[in-house]
């Protein structure tokens, strides 16, 4: 009987100790970050979080992923498990991206029978290059006058409406499309990964890029500013047929590995599914009036600078100072004199 009476007391002691240990484990969380190190207000200001708390999904399984984008190009077999996929593309070759309506029955009924707008971007994957993205793209413009980084192959594309490309934004294109109809857009990437690598001894390792797609619906004013979905994937771009050779080289290397080593790598998939990511930051909409045609000048969106990786929150780069602007002007003047 004495043993039976002591059992509840022992349980209370154990439970009290567990509570104290749990409280102690939580007591230091967040103290290592300064007050200004990370601001949740910046995250909550993003369009994807601008909704009433009651409408937020209770868990990831209930999260609405209305669209799926599939790049019709094989992934590399030389990517380790749990790493992001990597896809090789040939410079200037047309690659299909299928725009699929992934909504469940009854989801987002407000876009039924209406068009949505998608903005395509080719951006830097490397954080170091993201902070100097504007300068990198301007340098590319000087070296390749009249060329674009990203284009749409309109004759091959299906279901796209009013495709547009701002001549001042070489890495961005946009168009309208109807989710209820078959839509495939063929893109061409004209820059290669080694163009942004420091020249040293030849055979430089090219930098990876990202293809990011942001999709929006109309607001009450008929402007496509309400964010619906964003997704991206990692790519490397080679000179014509270089992607095929690189894919073959990776496959041959994997075949030489032992079965135990092969288990550490992902299989190569025939297509690349873009994974959900944060919406591209600092998108401002100045004018949404229809453009007379592709490549016509307009200002419906601006070039954002930041990180579009799905694994971490985008961060804006430091602002360009007056000193750097003066240096750029001086550099242009020198080129004119020469």
Q: In the CATH hierarchy, what is the class of the domain at 67-75 and 85-276? A: Mainly Beta
Q: Briefly note the structural class of the backbone.
A: alpha+beta
Main pleated sheet? 7 strands, mixed
Q: Please tell me the overall pLDDT.
A: 73
The tally of helices reads 7
Helix fraction by DSSP (H/I, runs of at least 4): 10-25%
Structural summary, described in words:
With 338 residues, this protein is α+β, with helices and mostly antiparallel strands. It has a domain at 67-75 and 85-276: Immunoglobulin-like (Sandwich). Helices cover 24% and strands 22% of the residues. It has seven helices and twelve strands. The strands form two sheets. Strands 2, 4, 6, 7, 9, 10 and 12 form a seven-stranded mixed beta sheet that branches. A five-stranded antiparallel beta sheet has the order 5-8-3-1-11, with no helix packed on it. Strand 6 and strand 7 form a beta hairpin. The longest helix has 25 residues, at 2-26. The chain is globular, with a radius of gyration of 25 Å. 25% of the residues are buried. The model is unreliable at 1-10, 24-61 and 283-338 (pLDDT under 50).
């Amino acid at each position: 009987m004495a043993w039976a009476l002591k059992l509840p007391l022992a349980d209370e002691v154990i439970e009290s100790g567990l509570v104290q240990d749990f409280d102690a484990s939580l007591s230091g969380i967040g103290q290592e970050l300064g007050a200004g190190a990370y601001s949740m207000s910046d995250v909550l200001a993003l369009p994807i979080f601008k909704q009433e708390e009651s409408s937020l999904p209770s868990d990831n399984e209930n999260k609405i992923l209305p669209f799926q984008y599939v790049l019709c190009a094989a992934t590399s077999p030389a990517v380790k498990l749990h790493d992001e996929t990597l896809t090789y593309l040939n410079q200037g070759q047309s690659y299909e991206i299928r725009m699929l309506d992934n909504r469940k029955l009854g989801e987002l009924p407000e876009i039924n029978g209406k068009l949505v707008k998608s903005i395509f971007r080719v951006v830097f994957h490397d954080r170091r290059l993201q902070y100097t993205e504007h300068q990198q793209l301007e340098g590319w413009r000087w070296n390749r006058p009249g060329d674009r980084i990203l284009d749409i192959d309109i004759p091959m594309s299906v279901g796209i409406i009013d495709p547009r490309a701002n001549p001042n934004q070489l890495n961005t294109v946009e168009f309208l499309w109807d989710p209820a109809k078959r839509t495939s857009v063929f893109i061409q990437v004209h820059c290669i990964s080694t163009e942004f690598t420091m020249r040293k001894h030849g055979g430089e390792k090219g930098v990876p890029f990202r293809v990011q797609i942001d999709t929006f619906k109309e607001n009450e004013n008929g402007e496509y500013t309400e964010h619906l979905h964003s997704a991206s994937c990692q790519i490397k771009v080679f000179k014509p047929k270089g992607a095929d050779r690189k894919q073959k080289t990776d496959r041959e290397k994997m075949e030489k590995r032992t079965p135990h080593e092969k288990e550490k790598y992902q299989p190569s998939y025939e297509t690349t599914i873009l994974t959900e990511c944060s919406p591209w930051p600092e998108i401002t909409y100045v004018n949404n009036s229809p453009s007379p045609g592709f490549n016509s000048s307009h200002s419906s969106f601006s070039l954002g600078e930041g990180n579009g990786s799905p694994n971490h929150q985008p961060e804006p780069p430091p602002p360009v100072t007056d000193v750097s602007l003066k240096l750029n002007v001086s550099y242009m003047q020198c080129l004119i004199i020469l």
